[in-house]
Write a structure and sequence with these properties.
Structural class: alpha+beta
Strand order of the largest sheet: 2-3-1-4
Distance between the termini: 24 Å
Helix content: 40-55%
Strand content: 15-25%
Order of helices and strands: HHEHEEHE
Radius of gyration: 23 Å
Length: about 170
């Protein structure tokens, strides 16, 4: 398997001659990128909220009528505390998962989570570390489901997230 630097020259250069000139002009940059990605492949990990939380019943029984204003407020406080506890558990799980997966990678690039996307990672994985990485991802998959999340691993991809030369402070 050979290493490939993903480039988008075809999007703005009009001829093969223009591409050859641009590649020659940028040869030093491409060499740095090739050194950065040599022997590795990019994988993406996304964790999103599930449609239905695995730990919740499909239908909730209606809450009983509170006996007093005090019991109503106590029930509301208990529900709020349970939600806050679940949010804290989810954040801890996401941080632990990101750390565990990053420990399998040479480099990571963090994407932008959205409303339902809770974790968006691109990982540059050395070819000889792919199996341990996939085993790690499989190990956290079941816990993600218990937390009401879906973990998806895709790849290998061309190393788009790592197709810039390394900065001087990481080289």
């Amino acid at each position: 398997t050979s290493d490939v630097v993903p480039v988008l020259y075809g999007a703005y250069l009009m001829s093969k001659a223009d591409v050859k000139i641009r590649v020659a002009e940028q040869a030093h940059v491409h060499q740095k990128i090739l050194a950065r990605i040599a022997g590795a492949q990019e994988y993406a990990v996304r964790i999103e909220r599930s449609e239905v939380r695995a730990s919740e019943p499909a239908e909730r029984a209606p809450a009983p009528e509170p006996a007093s204003g005090r019991s109503y407020l106590a029930a509301r406080r208990t529900a709020r505390d349970a939600r806050e506890t679940q949010v804290a558990r989810s954040r801890l799980f996401l941080a632990d998962t990101a750390t565990a997966l990053a420990n399998c990678a040479r480099e990571t690039a963090i994407g932008s989570p959205g409303q339902d996307r809770l974790l968006d990672l691109n990982l540059l994985i050395d070819r000889d570390r792919i199996r341990p990485f996939l085993e790690c991802a499989a190990a956290v998959h079941a816990e993600a489901a218990r937390q009401g999340m879906t973990l998806t691993v895709t790849g290998p991809w061309p190393a788009y997230a790592f197709s810039t030369p390394p900065s001087e402070d990481t080289a």
